[in-house]
Write a structure and sequence with these properties.
Largest sheet: 7 strands, mixed
GO molecular function: ATP binding; ATP hydrolysis activity; ATPase-coupled monoatomic cation transmembrane transporter activity; metal ion binding
Distance between the termini: 41 Å
Low-confidence stretches: none
Oligomer: single chain
Number of domains: 4
Structural class: alpha+beta
Number of helices: 27
Radius of gyration: 33 Å
Mean pLDDT: 82
Protein name: Cadmium-translocating P-type ATPase
Keywords: ATP-binding, Cell membrane, Ion transport, Magnesium, Membrane, Metal-binding, Nucleotide-binding, Phosphoprotein, Translocase, Transmembrane, Transmembrane helix, Transport
Number of strands: 22
InterPro entries: ATPase_P-typ_cyto_dom_N, ATPase_P-typ_P_site, ATPase_P-typ_TM_dom_sf, ATPase_P-typ_transduc_dom_A_sf, ATPase_P-type_domA, Cation_Transport_ATPase, HAD-like_sf, HAD_sf
Subcellular location: Cell membrane
Length: about 625
Amino acid sequence: MAMWSKVWPHIELIAAVLSGVLIIIVYILELQDIALPSVIVYLLAFVIGGYAKAKYGIKKTIEDRELNVEFLMILAAIGASVIGYWTEGAILIFIFALSGALETYTMNKSRKELSALMEMQPDEAWLLKESGETVRVPVGELNTGDLISVRPGERFPVDGEVHTGQTAVDESAISGEAIPVSKYARDNLFAGTVNLSGSITMVMTKPSSETMFQKIIELVQSAESEKSPSQQFIERFEGRYVKVVLLVFVLMLFLPHFLMGWGWNETLYRAMVLLVVASPCALVASIMPATLAAISNGAKSGVIFKGGAHVENLSVIKAIAFDKTGTLTRGKPEVTDFVIRRDANREQVMALVAGIESQSNHPLAKAITDFVIRQGVEPLRSLQVVDVPGNGLKTQFANEEILVGKPGFVGEEEAYAFENGILAILANQGKTVTFISDGHGILAAMALKDTVRDITKSTIAELQDRGIYCIMLTGDNRKTAKAIAEETGVDEYIAECLPGDKVHHLKNLLAEYEYVAMTGDGINDAPALATATTGIAMGEGTDIALETADVILMKNDLSRISYSIRLAKKMQRIVKQNIFFSVAVILVLIFSNFFQAISLPLGVIGHEGSTILVILNGLRMLNRNV
């Protein structure tokens, strides 16, 4: 059974090769003037090589009530044998079976990364019980909030966060990035990624059915079943074209004999050749293999396309709108300036500030605390801190009242006068400024900003070099938006946008540029993502953004947008090459047949050879260098 499971995926190729071997045996028999066994071996070659395609063609014809390419090939092979061209008919079946096997291989190859992902997700995990012991349990029995022990070399069984310990994680299966990522307390962990160094305890944050791996698997499966507009057109065209070919074939059976004086044998022969060379096999295979390979390539590189239509649309994008927070920027405030009064001790002030802020859950407080700790300064402990809603924090230290908060809370005039008006300078740079004061006035000013991602500026520049208009749509105030726009280099920015405003501006862009992408990560971006020609979501974005988007950047890496556009454009080039080549070959073969300049074997080789070539050309999309 195990051997059969390994053989079955290659059964079409095995059948095609066996058919070819039988044709060689027939050739040897004919050299020995052995006639009867030759016919039997030919029939075997027909059945073995053509069974899969014949079954598929007949089934699809009945289901769709539409003639297809496979039907034409069956008819051509039978017709060739009826008029005595057994060898040509067998060769037709052999090459048709070989091209079908190659197309199946292409599709299986495109699904290889998906299968690999499914195998990467562990079935069991080490559950840490309250008693301190670890028990091996099925992943399906785990619940949100469970503590799980993960040792070096093991894969994380579920999505969660670091609870205790620190380690380096190989996230290449999700992000496509080979460089390990350091993980500390409260950092996110994803199922299927590899724990490289330290033993850690993680807390499960999502059910096993909702892990990032499961989302990737579902999205890729959905993408492979969704056809691009070009593929849909070709499939509609195929049914009509086959009817036309069959009509011309019927006319060819009689008209050349009566109008051009051809003999009946020549007339029948040329009708059979027409049936072979006019079949649109290569045209039908021009798009799907390349599209599936492109989707597979994207999955390997941390980009999930939800269907071939979205790859195709991305190739013609003329403008991209970006959300600011969490897209162009990291989405987390960071301390950029820490200005201390000249008569104060820097380390003591930092320790005091961190001691106060560490007792608040506010994002700005956490950012300040993390900054101080990274400077190697230990926060003061045992401070009695009082939260003053809407203003800041206060405490008593060294018999003085210490205030931490906005200018109005610590003394607005003193805040604006501190360090020669540094507040105005920092505010004009789009930064949020927090002050700390003691009994002698302002002690320090801390400027925080949602910093621009390292890759943002180069990504925007590359997109602009490609002639793509870049605009930022943000709900932030004009001052902050202007500062970020200048830093990133976008062509235009619009500030203070509500979700409805983003949709309005997207519609204006669509009217002007026709094909527009939207990149975002939040709930407020979902309507705009749905409105755009192509919605692109950051992988760490909200669930509704991920559901609404057409393309997902798994690692929040904006450079993947440029990569995705290059990939889409390469796919379109290959598809156009395939369509032009396949149509040209069909026309050349048809005219050659009409002028009696081509034989049935050459027609078979030319027609089926072009099919194999377009499939191989489509396989170039598996190359990650785009």
